[in-house]
Amino acid sequence: MIVGIGVDLVDIPRFERSLERTPRLLERLFSPAERGLRPHSLAARYAAKEALIKALGGSDGVHWTDIEVASEPSGKPVFALSGSTAAVVAARGISAVHLSLSHDAGLATAYVIAESTT
User: Fold this and answer.
1) Which residues are CB-contacts of 73 (< 8 A; sequence separation ≥ 6)?
2) What element of type H or E holds 42?
3) Is 6 helix (H, G, I), strand (E, B) or coil?
4) CATH code of the domain in which 36 resides
5) Inter-axis angle of helices 12-21 and 39-56, to 10 degrees?
6) What domain range includes position 74?
7) Is the CA virtual torsion 61, 52, 30, 74 positive or negative?
8) Neighbours of 12 (CB within 10 A)
9) How many structural domains comprise the chain?
10) What is the pLDDT of residues 29-81, one digit of tens each?
11) Which of helix, strand or coil describes residue 12?
């Protein structure tokens, strides 16, 4: 059963300017494995994290660096959740989180569906 849906859209050039103005955003928003990625990939991952928070119904107990967007060998994006964020997802009975990412024409978008077996 679907228990939450989230979507987010990020203007890539504006996001890149924000990172240039405030370099510490990298540490606050991204896991160590994500920090070396190119701006369009970081923008898509930021959109994914925002979309996940929306699908969860709020950010209580969720920490940005506990949400990592990784890739399966096929290239499919997946969440690697840890810490209190993983605990929040489990406590809400969420058994699966689906993620789709895209970036084109200066925009990055993410769509998240959270599912529960109950």
Assistant:
1) none
2) helix 39-56
3) strand
4) 3.90.470.20
5) 100
6) 2-116
7) positive
8) 22
9) 1
10) 999 999 999 999 999 999 999 999 999 999 899 999 999 999 999 999 999 99
11) helix
